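Task: complex structure prediction.
Instruction: return structure tokens for all chains below.
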Amino acid sequence: METVLEIKNLNKRYKNQYALKNVSLSIQKGEIYGLIGRNGAGKTTLLKSIVKLIDSTSGQIALFGASTEKSWVKALRRTGSVIEVPVAYESLSGWQNLAYYCKLRGITNEKAIIQETLDIVGLDPKDKKKFKHYSLGMKQKLGIAIAILSRPDFLILDEPINGLDPLSIVEFRQLLKRLQQEQGMTIIISSHILSELYHVATRFGIIHYGELVKEISKEEFETLCQEYIVLQTSQMDNASRVLKEMNHYQVKIIAKDRMHIFDDSHQINHIVILLVQQQIPIDGIYYQKQDLENYFTSFVRDGMEEITYG
Amino acid sequence: MVNAIRADLYRLFHTKGFYITQFLLILFVVISVSAEATGTVGVTSSDEITGMQSRLQANDWDSYQTFIAFSSMASFLIYFCLPLLVMIAGYDFVHKSYKNQLTSGVSRLQYFGSKYLIFIVVTALQFLFYYTSAFLTAAVTNGIGTAPKDFWINALQTIGIQFIGFQAIFIIGLCILVITFSNVSSVISIIVIPLIINVSSALFNIGWLKYFDFQFGINFAWVRNLPDFSWPVFLCFSSGVIIVMSYTAYQAFRHKSL
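Output:
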């Protein structure tokens, strides 16, 4: 399988502070790579380094195998990107903006390409509205339309879901899947909205204080995020002892009155009976499944230590 | 490069600001021709120039006299090209629309080069528009008239000198635009720096300073025999500024974190 992007030991330092620290990752053709991180974690810096908007301090980036200045610029012709916010000419309509970029990139059969691109992103080709009067969702769509105008092999999207309403988010998710499946694009996407990222990405990378602290595929994540039982009780120590010693359950204490119980058999009735027999009060007990947001939060909060269920 | 010029011309022709600028330029031409009055920006104090202005006032403004008169007002073109700089390059730098190009396989040298080239082409067209509209307006109001001796050679030399002096002024503004990413700083520098040099040159008798007075050069390019002034030296100074400032602007852009 073709490696679209290979990053090795990438560092970016601003004075005494590292914006990126020893970041290494690779993205294979056809993947949708979700980049997760808090504000200022280094996501945009990483994406800007890939597209050469900023120079890295040290390390290597190979885009489509190209790492020299000249070949990199050539490789960038196979990419499209929306970094930070979508930008277009405010006094032009969506169609006119695309016509401008078609002329600039020497794209022939301009009319057909613009029509098709607007169809892909779901903008009305007959809409004469100027870019400055677009809603945020429409701006995001036009930003992507400009990025995919040359039908790139690799699409780089920085926080594209920010500010979108729920309906637009669903449309956006469908758009990304279409681009991957119908156009065969490889995509790297950063976002805060982890629930949405979970739906579209095939692999995730967690970036924290400039370091890529965890990479996990969707399959690995689903295996890892098994269903568990949440128990709320005022006698945490007793409950923990009983569950561990008498039934060898794996438990993780989350708060002073709450624990997670991990067990493949999902015998919630058995646990209730056991605790009642030991006269341990139950304030609440229910099933829950770890989602990407919980995973990320726990990961960052727990000081980047691997989450264990024991 | 051709694609970039086509694209930016397309954008200009779809921008309201472009038509407003051209309308104001035509208005300026019509009013000046109707009033048969010239004006300059800055300070002038040469006998040859005063003589040129007197001759213009003595003659009817046919097309040829109007052309000569308008050559002495060409520094006004700076104000009619400022919006073009803002529309062509300023918008891109301020609104970061360069990202769409730089991230899709256009090198910074290609980008900067194409933006500058487009500006040169558009200002050349603006010069053409300025002189053609003045020539035609005068033809309608006072007739074409008879061409003075060596008129066309003089006209081409004048436009050449003016165009190079003009680019020297604007490359300073472009350089400041690239460094600051601010249209306001760029526009102010284009207006204020030539004025400061113009006034300083008139007030202080510094030999070389007059060759940096591009505004003076633009306004009096028609007058070939200015005392203590060499046009070839002026062209060398102007070209030197263009080369040094364009290199500085490119280097600033090349190393800028975007």
